[in-house]
Amino acid sequence: MAPYASDDSTHAGEADGPRGGRRKVARYVVPVTVAGVAAATIGLVPALADSGDPDLPKISAQQLIEKIAASDVQRLSGTVKITTDLGLPDLGGLESGLLSGAAGEAGGSSADPSAKLTELASGTHTLRVAADGPDRQKVSLMENAAEYSLIHNGKDVWGYDSASNEVYHSTAEQGAKDDATPVPTTPQELTEEALKAVDDTTSVTVDGTVRVAGRDAYKLLVEPKQSGSTVGAISVAVDARTGLPLKFTLTPSSGGAAVVDAGFTQVSFAGPAASTFDFTPPKGAKVTEGDTAEAPEDPGASPYEDFDRDWALKTIGEGWTSVAAFDTGGEGVPSSGDLPDAGGLGGFLDSFGDKVTGRFGSGTVFSTRLVNALVTDDGKVYVGAVTKDALVKAADSGQ
């Protein structure tokens, strides 16, 4: 992560998305709009902070940001607590169908990480994480008596779902961007996305100290200056010794409980055992081979070039009120009148969204506590961590 130009301003980074084409559009729409147009807008559960604020040397916001940027923790293991509270309505199992559909695109494996880790978009989860340099990482999602593990060891990426005894395998060429994990899973990844760039749309200050997972930390407070953003503030607990983000909390501008609060409950910087990253498909497991990620011919080219071209992706506005816009080339959200035989699906969609009109025409706004999306009747989509009024304004300006 590069050093930053200012100690008191930042803006939201670019949204993550799939490497291109309509085949993987669900990876963009579902993880990005639900898990955040910027990955910084994911919501997760409080890590257990220790009592008592440590007495640490004074540090400026600029120095603390530079400390995060300079952090070079290569080895660690620990436990991360994650909860998502986007305020989504009860979809009656529909969300499971979306995830299953995403897995179906990759060959129907329940072990496909693009679908499995998207489950982090709701509920409370416990992750065990381990890393030993850039070529060996492991994330294990603990769910009741079952476990899902995503393992990167050299060129091999393995996903294993113990509940179904299914395995997903893919490989990555040297220099290829790892696209195995569709959403950030640690405070460090969330923080890197939140601090990708700085400008005068954001206030960044040091907000005291705290102890997290038994370690002394500074608190970095990031607050949008712009009105119209659904982000209230982002607080990051930064390890005083290593500069590693230990806890990431995002609260909405509407108030109430945190939308994002992810943090270590236990962490060690000793090197994990080499066997941690070993994996052999269990006997009888169904193994699905995924795509091989190839290194781009032009290292400076956008990894989402095909997606940007096919869907005419563009950004309206700047900073925290920026809105991602693209044209599906199809019709908008079906209404109850359009779906006479859909078992009430049209009526459900009508009740879920709010009808809006403007110079752009008419459409439907689907809202969460953080990320909102406007789908126009002629198939254009506007998504951002902004209010409904800001979406309509963006759609009007985008005509």
Q: Can you describe this structure?
A:
The chain is α+β, with helices and mostly antiparallel strands. The chain has 2 domains: 22-289, Lipoprotein localisation LolA/LolB/LppX (outer membrane lipoprotein receptor (LolB), chain A, Clam), CATH 2.50.20; 312-397, TATA-Binding Protein. The protein is built from 8 helices and 19 strands.
Topology at a glance:
Layout: H1 25-35, E1 49-50, H2 61-70, E2 75-84, H3 94-105, H4 113-116, E3 123-132, E4 136-143, E5 146-153, E6 156-161, E7 166-171, H5 187-194, E8 202-212, E9 215-224, E10 231-239, E11 245-252, E12 260-268, E13 286-289, H6 305-311, E14 314-316, E15 323-327, H7 345-352, E16 354-358, E17 361-366, E18 372-376, E19 380-384, H8 388-397
Parallel strand pairs: 7-13
Antiparallel strand pairs: 1-8, 2-3, 2-12, 3-4, 4-5, 5-6, 6-7, 8-9, 9-10, 10-11, 11-12, 14-15, 15-19, 16-17, 17-18, 18-19
